[in-house]
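User: What would this chain look like folded?
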Amino acid sequence: MNEKGKAMDVQGAHDSENRNVLMWNRHNGLNQQWDIVYVKDMPDEPKKGEWNKEFNFKVDMTFHIVSKMKSGRYLDILGRNLVIKTRNGRKS
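Assistant: Here's the prediction, encoded as structure tokens.
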């Protein structure tokens, strides 16, 4: 808390990616509570090929997302849209 009674506050108390953090009147909600973790005490990030438990994927390993519909088309990017397409060798 600063000298004016303001605290760092996760806006709207929404725990979501890219949510704003701002200064707000102190109310002691979880969105205003923080831990200080020293770098030497942080757990190591998973390395290439290791399982990332947070995201449930292997780190830095190529994968495809395949439709379960009969055609088995792959998820792909066409312009700015996600589409399903027959496998075409593209890395997208």
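The mean pLDDT is 86. If you want, I can go into more detail on any region.
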